């Protein structure tokens, strides 16, 4: 990964076809920071690194039936459900 300096920033972009965009980006040789994955918070996401070292995350809202929900309590607390 490119070295990030003090100008490094993150961006999150909502997209409609994360899988298709991921395939296109990989085909074009873009540096991947995080591979495509369905997250427990209901998003399908992946992230890239720009030549300047910035990170950009792309995410698509998953249909409800695809969401893998997981309750993770904060340390020292109990889940509410």
Put the structure in a nutshell.
The chain is mainly beta. 12% of the residues lie in helices and 32% in strands.
Topology (elements, then pairings):
Elements: E1 10-14, H1 18-27, E2 32-38, E3 43-49, E4 55-61
Parallel strand pairs: 1-4
Antiparallel strand pairs: 2-3, 3-4
Q: Your description of this structure?
A:
This protein is mainly beta and 81 residues long. Helix content is 12%, strand content 32%. It has a four-stranded mixed sheet with strand order 1-4-3-2, with helices on one face. β3 (43-49) and β4 (55-61) form a beta hairpin. The chain starts with 9 loop residues before the first strand and ends in a 20-residue tail after the last strand.
**Biggest β-sheet strands, sense, barrel:** 4 strands, mixed
Mean pLDDT: 82
- Order of adjacent strands in the largest pleated sheet: 1-4-3-2
Unreliable stretches: none
What Rg, in angstroms, do the CA atoms define? 15 Å
Query: Outline, from the CA principal axes?
Result: globular
Q: What percent strand? A: 25-35%
Q: Given the structure, what is the number of helices?
A: 1
Per DSSP E runs of 2 or more residues, the count of β-strands stands at 4
Structural class by sheet pairing and helices: mainly beta
Give the proportion of residues in helices: 10-25%
């Amino acid at each position: 990964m490119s070295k990030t300096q003090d100008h490094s920033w993150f961006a999150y972009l909502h997209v409609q076809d994360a899988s298709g965009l991921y395939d296109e980006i990989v085909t074009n040789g873009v540096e991947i920071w995080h591979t495509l994955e369905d997250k427990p918070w209901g998003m399908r996401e992946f992230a890239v690194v720009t030549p300047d070292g910035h990170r950009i995350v792309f995410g698509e809202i998953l249909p409800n039936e695809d969401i893998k929900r997981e309750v993770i309590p904060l340390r020292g607390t109990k889940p509410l459900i």
